[in-house]
Design goal:
With 78 residues, the protein is of the alpha/beta class. Helix content is 36%, strand content 12%.
């Protein structure tokens, strides 16, 4: 997100920016699905359990599977 210049953007505004521009988003924010209406979104989301590199490296296959199996408007908790 920082590369796009989107650091610090609130979740609702961020979803508006990415929906239709990207197919998939991998947030670590556990509250996103409770704070936002995701039903009408075209983007698929897969929630990470955190953002610590060692944990994510161990989950690489699971994350790749979530990306490969994603469908528009879906939300998966990894």
């Amino acid at each position: 997100m920082q590369r796009e210049g989107w650091a610090g953007i609130e979740n609702g505004d961020l979803l508006k920016l990415v929906d239709g521009r990207f197919d998939f988003m991998v947030p670590a924010d556990k509250n996103l699905r409770y704070q936002q209406n995701l039903a009408s979104r075209r983007i698929a989301l897969a929630e990470l359990p955190g953002n610590r590199s060692p944990v994510l490296q161990q989950m690489a296959t699971l994350i790749a599977d979530a990306v490969n199996n994603a469908r528009p408007g879906t939300y998966t908790s990894l």
